[in-house]
Write a structure and sequence with these properties.
Layout lengths: L1 H6 L12 E10 L6 E10 L5 E4 L2 E4 L1 E2 L8 E7 L10 H9 L3 E5 L15 H4 L1 H15 L7 E11 L1 H9 L8 H8 L7 H8 L3 H10 L12 E7 L18 E6 L11 H4 L6 E7 L13 H6 L1 H4 L7 H19 L6
Parallel strand pairs: 1-5, 6-7, 6-8, 8-9, 9-10, 10-11
Antiparallel strand pairs: 1-2, 2-7, 3-4
Length: about 350
């Protein structure tokens, strides 16, 4: 409690007025699968932003715009299952326009064009390692390291990315909790494989192998990360013991009618177990995908299932609040404020 009071006490800093935003593609070494994976860095720029189309994404940022000098806080964003390194571009642009460096990455074998690793250790245990690798990449890159304050780093994540953010913040997954969940929700599509393994008598062994691989690529927790902003997280694999070592602020967001990751089994399940919980927000009537950036007409046509929200849900309005909450949270927890 004392830690939270100190973190949320007023701090004195130079006012962070909105600026233009630049962005550049980056290549991040992947210590899990070998090779590299793509991503982007968004950053404050004195050059006015322009609309840039990148595939179906309408980015309000200028490619290769000159960055504003000086060390700034960094936030790394981890996308969800089968997601994209631009799936949360509006959040990245918003934070960058208010003085933050923001990095995104594409998680190998669990992205919109390759889901071949879903359910394997390379994804479930590998995601947090890849978030750490993104931080390493930027802090060691001559282009970026002078623009980042290494003592002010946060993570944001959605769905499986929310799971990764929690693990980076100190949570320890207990994969055997999948068994209990699937007994309670046998019709969940993700329980099909587990049911098959259980019928073969190999489910326990498979989950044990996942558990044994948690530290296979190194410790997934990262002490450099000071705060986690978590949206509709995959968190049914956490219990009280799992979350005992989360000692930095966490902000939880969820959609009231999320049918992909049921709130009572995920966000609401872990909320009372996080001793450093800084806040919880619910989007009324919203489903799982409300946390993805508002879709362009092209993306809405190509991916209606992730772009359409239930009646009564305004994704644009929801994102105004999500982005404002993320900014306020990271300003307080990373020691940045306006006055």
């Amino acid at each position: 409690m004392l830690l939270l009071l100190l973190l949320f006490a007023p701090v004195v800093a130079i006012a962070q007025a909105a600026t233009g935003v630049g962005f550049q593609a980056v290549t991040i070494r992947d210590p899990v699968n070998g090779g590299t994976t793509p991503g982007y860095v968004f950053y404050p720029s004195a050059q006015a932003s322009k609309i840039t189309w990148h595939g179906p994404y309408e980015l309000h940022a200028t490619p290769d715009a000159p960055p504003i000098a000086g060390a700034k806080p960094l936030v790394v964003i981890s996308h969800g299952h089968a997601g994209s390194d631009l799936g949360h571009h509006d959040l990245a642009v918003y934070l960058a326009s208010h003085g933050f460096m923001v990095a995104t990455l594409e998680h190998p074998k669990d992205n919109f064009h390759d889901t071949s690793g879903v359910g394997t250790a390379a994804v479930l245990d590998g995601r947090p390692i890849q978030v750490k690798a993104a931080i390493d990449e930027l802090l060691n890159d001559p282009r970026w390291k002078t623009l980042i304050n290494p003592n002010r780093i946060g993570v944001a994540g959605f769905s499986a990315g929310g799971y990764a953010a929690l693990v980076v913040a100190g949570a320890v997954p207990h994969f055997d909790l999948f068994m209990g969940y699937c007994k309670r929700h046998p019709k969940d599509p993700d329980c099909g494989l587990l049911e098959k393994l259980e019928s073969e008598g190999t489910a326990t062994a498979a989950l044990a192998a996942l558990q044994a691989s948690v530290d296979h690529w190194g410790k997934p927790a990262d002490p450099r990360v000071k705060a986690a902003f978590v949206m509709a997280p995959l968190s049914l694999v956490f219990d009280k013991a799992s979350l005992a070592h989360v000692d930095r602020p966490v902000f939880l967001y969820y959609g009231q009618d999320d049918q992909v990751l049921l709130p009572q089994e995920n966000a609401l399940h872990i909320a009372p177990l996080i001793k450093t919980l800084a806040g919880t927000e619910m989007i009324p009537k919203a489903g799982h995908y409300v946390f993805l950036s508002p879709c362009s007409p092209r993306l809405a046509n190509d991916a209606a299932d992730i772009c359409k929200d239930p009646p009564g849900v305004d994704r644009v309005a929801a994102h105004r609040k999500i982005n404002a909450n993320a900014l306020a949270f990271f300003r307080k927890t990373l020691g940045v404020a306006t006055h």
